[in-house]
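Session log. Operator J.P. requested a structure for one protein chain; no other inputs attached. Running the standard single-chain path with token output.
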Amino acid sequence: MTDIATTHSQAQRLKADSLLLLAAFIWGISFVAQRVAALNMGVYAFTGLRFLLGALVLLPFAWRRSSFSHLRGRDLQGILMAGLLLFGGAALQQSGMRFTTASNAGFITGLYVVFIPLILVIGGLERPRRAVWLAAICAAAGLFLLSTGGQFRLAPGDALVLVSAVLWASHVIWVGRLVQRLDPLEIAIGQYLVCGGLGLLVSLLSEGNVLPQAAAAWVAVLYTGLFSVAIGYTLQLVGQRVAPPADAAILLNLEAVVAALTGWLVLDERLSAVQLLGCGLILAGMLLAQVKIDKKTG
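Structure written below.
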């Protein structure tokens, strides 16, 4: 299948890449707020509240552009699937983090940059450029060094995080195709409502009290709901109207670099020379993703 990027102008692609990088930057900064929430409230309650807040923030903007009445059954099914993949990725990742280290979780989650081109090839959906393969491997190596410092030890929760990485990869691929025929705002609100509703339902069944008691948890919910969800995930959808899934995933990996730098500045978490090398490899992967070295498909 012809690379989606070939149908768009260079200016459009530059704009799309900029939006994806901005989304990654927002997610990376939100890492501190997510750490605060993890210490003060349940995983599913946090997921439910922040995604529902993100949907509510976007609703006024969407009503001006669309009545949602034109959505057909096929469209609603596509949005539902996007929400299910989003919830599965977020829930499994957070659940797995209870039984593994943050470094392991960060590295394994980031492996979606490799899973995406694999899924595309196995599913016969697309043939990523050779530069994308090189960029994905480079980014994965950088994530390994940045997240683990070069020392990776298996933990019980790693399998859950690995499955979540596959779901994240599937989500990027799915919404990348969905935004080619639907408005990004409609997809955003729909998938946030599905993800948030499931989060609150599971929280009621398994965690009991949905509303957090600590003020710090409320700040985390408000911050991530507004910035990480309403702005970050929506920018991802807009950017993916132009950028192919494999390319988008590599750009979104800037999140790991920003999260590490934020942890250093705000939480006083030091970065070793090995971790700094990992940051460099991730940035190199982002640059490689923009290189066209194929004769036929580049």
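Operator note: DSSP finds 13 helices and no strands in the chain.
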